[in-house]
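Hi X.,

You mentioned you wanted examples for the new student's onboarding notes, showing what a folding record looks like when two proteins sit in one file. Here is a clean example. The first protein comes first, with its sequence line followed by its structure tokens.
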Amino acid sequence: MAKVKTGSTYSNPLSTRPPLTPEAKEQQMIALAYDLVEQRLRDGTASSQETTHFLKMGTERARLEQRRLEAETEMIIAKKESLQSQQRSEEMFQQAINAFRRYSGQSGQDDCDDY
């Protein structure tokens, strides 16, 4: 007689709410794929590619690579914020120059837009 699994930790994918966005659908599919590979690893039926993927994920090199990617992302975000701040400063500087011109009687002239 075949054994029937009861009380499985894996939910029925048909009983879950359908995703509302393509990103949510992608995340759902990724979660299902991970669940399937996890079950295959537990059953001993995982392919060599599946096993190798998770072995590589557990290495120090993979952790260092992940940290490097996170640091690069933070640096890119900081550069973007710096450029935006610089642009705001330049706009404020230009507004100040224009205000000084108006105060000095040179209203309507924008000869220093290149600053």
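Then the second protein repeats the pattern, sequence line and then tokens:
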Amino acid sequence: MCLAVPAKIISLLENEEAVVDIGGGAHQTICVAFVPEVKVGAHVVVHVGFALSILDEEEARKSLALFESLPAAEGEGGTP
């Protein structure tokens, strides 16, 4: 199963890259080539290190709330 997650653009870098906050203060460098119009503060859908689309803030909040409500895979009978 593949999973795309919402993330917030923290800073834009050279070479079509950006640093995002993927929740809980975890930061990751991703490619934003598919969404060249993205700006700092925007929310994007990230899959395997690529921003696939821009989310409006309300949709990002809903997605983040859904992820936070899911039980952790480890120790809850899920697959790690």
